[in-house]
Amino acid sequence: MVSLKDIKLAVIGLGYVGLPLAVEFGKKRSVVGFDINSTRIDALRSGLDSTLEVSTAELQQAENLQYSASLEDLRQCNVFIVTVPTPIDEYKQPDLTPLVKASESIGKVLKRGDIVIYESTVYPGATEEDCVPVLEKVSGLAFNQDFYAGYSPERINPGDKEHRVTTIKKVTSGSTPEVAELVDSLYREIIVAGTHKASSIKVAEAAKVIENTQRDLNIALINELAVIFNKMGIDTEAVLHAAGTKWNFLPFRPGLVGGHCIGVDPYYLTHKAQSIGYHPEIILAGRRLNDGMGAYVVSQLVKAMVKQRIHVDGARVLIMGLSFKENCPDLRNTKVVDIIKELQDYNIRVDVHDPWVIAEEAQHEYGITPVQELVGGTYDAVILAVAHQQFKEMGVANIRAVGKPEHVLYDLKYLLPAEASDLRL
User: Which of 77, 131, 261, 328 is catalytic?
Assistant: First the structure.
């Protein structure tokens, strides 16, 4: 097994998770940052990160980091950190394709004594039951004899400039006690917040997947409460402010639950639970409720439009915000598209405006071309779907100005004062 000082590191996948990690290690030691997207590699070499997670100055500080789309450049490495996406498919089942393909690529260059560390969110057992067999098959090497594995789940929060990779405590693990210690030591080089060495890879995998499952269920509860309070004519935000005066009340807010973690990870856990013969009632109930919020929002909007005698068929609606969260361009699993599809079912013409997203990416992923300029007096309804700073700065008057004289303003994110909008979640 390789020693800490002799590690030649590779980070596989340079997205929201992999790039910040590679940059931090690149300040300390030699790193190959690998991605199959050659366009992404060219942009990083020129000092540009389209995810906006890492600035040009930070990229320049990683003096020991080289970018590559060539598998040959990985042959010199002996420790591989895998940070590829783990999405769900159209049937809400785990899609391990990126993980398997990354494992196949690594298997082609894997040598005796090498270590493969996975950071991608998976269900408990996936590293050793799904990834390791791929490494063994492609490389011809034996697990825990010729090569080893580790797992250290990512905790990246896109758009968050306070909680960065180095300032979030890191869970680590390894396939043997010696590997676990080496993996932990490696991450301690860059994680100033410290590390937590889990007792096994499965424990580390389970810890990660329940972090976001817990958040998902808490948000589902608040979403359900919002539906109840709306029916009762009670302001949900006012209720949450009042309840929040108790010291141990958790400060969750209702809303759309998308993104690459909270809206996805619970399905990894429920998939594994069902495979071992257990049907997870509470987790799936929370998922169903959160997945239905887009349809609920549209039903509320349409009712409000009808009450104002606004003709629904052929109406024009502006959705402000497309990314899955505020102040970042991340479009992965954004639930704003659920609102768009539901509106289109009513034959409503939908425009989307988002100053953060890359228009080409929105078109590629969802067939949506965001409008760049807003024209006054255009829309029958406006939905504030994402709390971007730019929308806060617009103010109520400017947001209202894009609507027709008779229009509905729906504030999903409590971005405006309660009295400024017609509807709130």
Answer: 261
